[in-house]
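note to self: dont lose this again. the chain is below, predicted strucutre after it. 77 aa total, dont forget to put it in the shared folder this time
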Amino acid sequence: MLFSGFAEDYSSYQAEKAALDQVEKQYMFPLEAGLVADVEGGLKNFMEKAKAAGLDKIQAEYKKQWLQYLKDSDLSK
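---
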């Protein structure tokens, strides 16, 4: 199975991952639970906070690791 061999190494973005986890708890969980009246505003606020927490760095490093995994597994073709 394609996904079973991939192990994310978040050591290079551990601080950002911890910060993003806190942002999710504070801003995303209430959205998912239906506790935010202005959903669009709440989502916008979440994304701003997520980016400030390092979302772009996390996504870039994760993508780099995933593509390397595919290359190493010869699954990128």
